[in-house]
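Re: beginner question about structure tokens

> Can someone show what the tokenized structure looks like for a real chain? I only ever see the sequence side.

Sure, here's an example I had lying around. Input first:
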Amino acid sequence: MASFIDQVLLVLTTTPGNLTYHLVLTFTIAATLQISLPLIGRNHLPQGRRLVIGLTILLSVRLIHFIAAIFSWQAVTQIPEIHFALLDRAITALSLVIIVWLWAFPEPSSSADRSFGLLGALTLTFLIFSTIWWTNGSQLTPFNSSEPDVLWQTFSIFLIFLGGILLVVRLPVGWGIGLVCMVILFTGHLVHLVSPVPNADYPGIVRLAQLAAYPLLFFLPQRFPLTFAKRQAAHLSADSSWANTALNEATIHSIRDLATENTPTLVYPALTHTIAHLMSSDVCLLLSTNAPEDSIHIDFGYDLIREETIPATSFKPDQIPSLAYALIEEKPLRLNDDETASDQISLGTALNLSHSGPILAVPLLDSSGKAHLSIVLLSPYSNRQWDEEDEDFLVNLTASFTPILVRTRQFQELENHIDQLKQALQDAESRAQKVSQLNKTLITELTTLQENVTQEQSRTESLAALISTHFSSAEGIEDTFDEFKHILTSAPDALKHEQADDGHQSIQEDLQLALEEITHLKASLSAAREHIQELEESSSTPNDIEGRDLTISNIAQELRLPLSSILGYTEVLLTSSTNALNLPQRKLLERIKTSSQRLVGLLEDLSQLAVPQDREVSTQPLSLLALIEETVAFTHQGLRRKKLTLKTDIPGKLPQIQADRNLLRQLIVNLINEAIRATPSGESIAITVSSKDPTIPPDSILLQISDSGPGIPPIELSQVFASTQSPHQTAPDNISDLALSTLKHHFESQGGRVWVDSVVDQGTTYSLLLSVYLPSLLASSDFPKFDEALE
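And the corresponding structure tokens:
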């Protein structure tokens, strides 16, 4: 017996006997394919199409193997025999992939198709790598028992084992026969792996197992009965058994609802109840397809046996492949009872039934031949088999109900359109409310803007009044300067008659310098007047106003220097030219001095008023000692004019402070001027700086300016930094109080603090709390200690 098997294996693995093996397998697959073709021609089932496609691929692979065997026998090519052995293992594994796919997944499954497609690609890739591997190695030994052969056999056994598990788990139609096929193939590969034929290149026992297993492929097309057909509706005979079907009261009410109602919530229950009763069906379902969601819906269902409705549910097409295909293709469908088919399993699970029973489905076609709904009848209780007569009757019955469903669908579309219009109206109302709210917001913003414009106009009018006052004062001063220029021009001639000593020579030089300063000041005043008039004539947009304020501030700075020089020369002439000038000339000099001082005050107020309320400040590290020295020099004329004494108590070394230089300097100047105005002539003013006072916060410096004036009553203290007249103000045209409130606002916005304390008949103290610049500490060794009175 062993010798006989050896002879059989020898015939299957050597030429020309091995051609018989290839012919048997090829003709077996071709015959199975021929039996499967009617599944496409008559049934139109997706299972039949998948079967035909799989068998076609399998037949093509086996034909390639057969042709390769002929080439090897006839030595047509120069390819070594060992490469044909590798091709034999690869085609065997690829055939297993196709066979497992056909047995385990008869119904459409995109995930399974992709997975087995990937296995096929992996098989071809393995063929390429094993060919390269074997070509680079030794090719003198037989292929059986080689490392590539062991790997191929292991891979084939894995595929067969995977197919067996899938059959047992999924239990498709005919899974038992498929499992027998897997067992036969598994046995052949396992025997070859354990006990291969020595000194051979082909696995004879594997080929013998294939010859035994491949005929079982004939059972593949028999899993799907040929009961699906599309026919024209036949005319029912007058003596048909359906004509005598009795109508109960519930069915009559359902028919009445079909004739009178338009809403789907009433028409669908009436339709399923009527058809279930007329067809004597256990269950009647109304299904629809929803292409955008790629799903099948049960819109409504009725269980005639239980007399209860079936809730709506949805299915994926791969859950009910046969029924989904019939609905999409708009074809009738009859499926016999098969407890392992996906359609019956999915419907039974969704309806809480042990099984769905036989299925009869008919599409509801409208006048255009399109089907939006389908009627599906099930027999889970009676297990009634649907025949051609049942199908014909249901086709005619649904044709009579189609106009009702078309009317219902049109009514539903109309209601949906009305709902859309209502929603659009609600959206429009919502947008109108938003627009109204936006309009109110814009009105509020416009009102605020108008208030800001009004405030800016008021400020502009105040500035215009001050400019007008400035022009009138400047014109008077120009006339006085013309007289003074005449005096200064004639003064040198008068001095010629006097004794030429050093004092007269100095007076003559001062006269010459004063003359030059007056000429420069007149030119500056004329240019400033023209520039300001141009600014007044320009538009009053925010950018123009900001530019105008900056220009006015710059003009005030330019005019302040020559005025200060003129004041200095005037004081020198008044104190040094006792014999050079007569009494009228001295009075004229006094008038020039007073007018110049008044013009300096106007320029200070003008520069402060030109600073907007929302001015941006830029802080920087500053030396407080240097800043105090600068402000004292700036107010020195006022101190000398009232013969005031300036007393200071300032440490020699102070840390730097963090502040806006221009802002802090102007604030200190204004506070010193307030102290000068309040202090009687011959009295003193004190400046005190403290950095280690326990009453002040850490990292802060306290700067105090005290006068010895009459003090401010408590009721008036709150008005010191308000936009009202200063308590010490004596001239009604002075507006330094507005500048002081503006400076206080900007200074405190930087984190500083300004306040005032006063005792009636004892004096007033202005306090500034400054922030220390932490990164560094300035040692003012180059600034002298203010420990003596400054006159």
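Each token stands for a local structural state, so reading them left to right follows the chain. Residues 388-496 form the longest helix (109 residues).
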